[in-house]
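Title: Prediction job returns without error message
Component: structure pipeline
Severity: low
Priority: P3
Assignee: unassigned

Description:
Job completed but the reporter wants confirmation the result is attached to the right record. Sequence as submitted:
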Amino acid sequence: MFGGRIQSKNLFFFAAVLPTLFVVSGAGDSLVFGRPLPDGEFLVSSDGVFKLGFFSPGKSSFRYVGIWYNRITVQTVIWVANRETPLKDSTGVLSISASGGLFISDSRGKVYWAALPAMPARPAAKLLPTGNFAVSGAAGEYAWQSFDHPTDTILPYMKVGVDWTTRKTKNLTSWKSADDPAPGDYTFYPNIHGDPQTFLLKGENQVWRSGPWVGEKFSGIPQMTTYDFFKLRFVSNAKEAYYEFTMKNTSILSRLVLQANGVMERLVWKEEGHWTLYWYAPRDDCDHYGYCGPFAVCDASQSLLCDCLRGFEPSSPENWKLRDWKDGCRRSTAVECESGAYGFVKVTNAKLPDTSRVAMEKTMGMEECREACLRNCSCAAYAAAQVVNGTEHGCLMWSGELVDIRIYYDDGGDLFVRLALADVGDSPGAPRRIWPIPAAAALLLLLLALLSRFLWRRRKSNRVAMRSSHSTKSQQRKVEMNTSPELDLPMYELPAIIAATDDFSAANKLGEGGFGPVYRGLLEGKEVAVKRLAKSSSQGLNEFMNEVSVIAKLQHRNLVGLLGCCVDGEERILIYEYMPHGSLDSFIFEKDKALQLDWSTRFRIITGVARGLLYLHQDSRLRIIHRDLKASNVLLADGMNPKISDFGLARVVASDEAEGNTRRVVGTYGYMSPEYAMDGTFSVKSDVFSFGVLVLEMISGRKNRAIFDSDHRLNLVGDAWNLWKEGKEREIVDSSLGASFPTAEALKCIKIGLLCVQERPEDRPEIETVVLMFGGNSEALPRPKPPGFIVARVCPDGSSNSSNSVNDITFTAISGR
């Protein structure tokens, strides 16, 4: 039995017994009867990896008993005993009784926490090399272990699942905050109904779902098949069902943790002195449970995330237009089971629907599975239960609603959805089945179904035409912009924007860029950023339309979200999600605010921008070259999460197109690559150049266009190159960081920045390679070649020239001083 508090009737007994245990504790990894562990002393596992003792989390002064990594300077707690009952002082003692009970008490004998396992012979509690704290007896069996009672962390060899005999599950619960390990709002637990899967809850509301285990991965985590460092397995038998992971290289430390903000993260410890984020969930809106409602699919690569399954239509068409998808979809044509006029359509690369109520047959093949679904009129869909090395095994059959389906780019499984024959069509790979009936009757049924479908579509087209003839001025403007047919981007009336920004009041003004001023507003109860095209702006209708057409198609946590737009006369307005911390340049180039950017925050911003750029260049369904990546176009959301913004100058290129060319060179000097500024040639490598400049600015806290050497007139890139060649790269690091940064990691980032700003585009790495470089060893990186950098012209009065003409810039390669 495991308890946080114990009954008051037992307090007298414990208070009488415990004082006899208060003698000097022994060192080592074990706690034995008669040798308690007082606050200030510790147990250490035999391999030195884990430590157990009293600690105070964060800024708290309360004392808890916990387990953390012994050799890591950043205290990382992986288990807490008395989560809800801390001690107020340092008089606490952890002890084990003669019967194997564990107790946390104070000097007065008050018990704050107890674990009372079955009584073993000659009990001892040992901190094992796995991080497990276990009570065992002379026979060696575990009477109690911390692995059976996790807090917020999963370690290698820890089983997370259910014991079918006792029906007990092993759940994770988040901390309330970094200062309070008491159970927070979020729970990660295994769902034992149907085909087992794991869920993330906030209170009682489902937030995220892993999907069922389908042989080599969870259906909702397809990237698990690419995990090279881990051995992953899911075991399900008559006794238990559980998931666990182990490390192929035991010298690598990794953990799964449920953070206080409700994000499940897999972290890996880097020798440079920090935890690296390897995986997390929820990753995007499509990861949120049931985001699109029943019988709908979510696709994060599309501008409109939700779409109905084939053969289904929105349950609430008006809400669907407003991007309120929670009602999901309904069948376009009813399935009449008795007639036999139905079949299946295959949904590929899918996260399988919620399997809580699924029927599962482990021994069926796919043909048997399809036949079983056909015979059952309530069967809505079927899929393979497992796919191992491309071979399908077992059968899953859903009845009722299909909920929480999403589509992946190149992974996921196959789901076969039952449809009326009229809705099946000629879908490739969609298996059909008609009950054996005379050929003439079958043909007649098919013709009737097709005729019914044709008439329904005709009536629908007539209704659409009637609505079009009564369109509003706003809809007419949408047609004029040519955005509605492709994007379905919400249009807002100008009076609504004026009301949201208090008539564009100066008090609501957030800043101003090349496009025009940006205002804070409250629109439909949500904080937004309103970007208004200035009449004097050099960015006109083309740039406005470019930004609308490009960013509306994008969905990524490191890209700013476009919520809508407004066109009214000469007014052209874009509405974005509000970023509470503003732009990155206001932090790194202002000494006071730069103090808020410690190294871990800077590194997280750098890698976040890299992931956003990787999405633009490679992972989105469009290949996009930003052309104006700079510090002021990186906005900071909650948690200082970076988001790339301002796509007015972006270009969409074919997936196989290497570069483009323009006669009109636009962008920001200091971030432009040499080939773009001089020849108008842009490519993904010109974005990499801009990113390299941004990396060097983040590390140094200096602008690239500033002059640092009056003799050589070098900018930041040139100065960083010379310092690196002379072995003085530490001088590049922002002095506001002091000595509180991992030197090896900072120097690696400087080297990556210099690799990105090399003069020749072919020498610069792809952004995919850059992302991998941040997680690799600095010594394995190639040696940078000389950069293409800007020599700043000096005006007669000694000030630098700030002209916006390309002719005022000289690009060259430099050697060491």
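Comment from assignee: result matches the submitted record. The mean pLDDT is 81.
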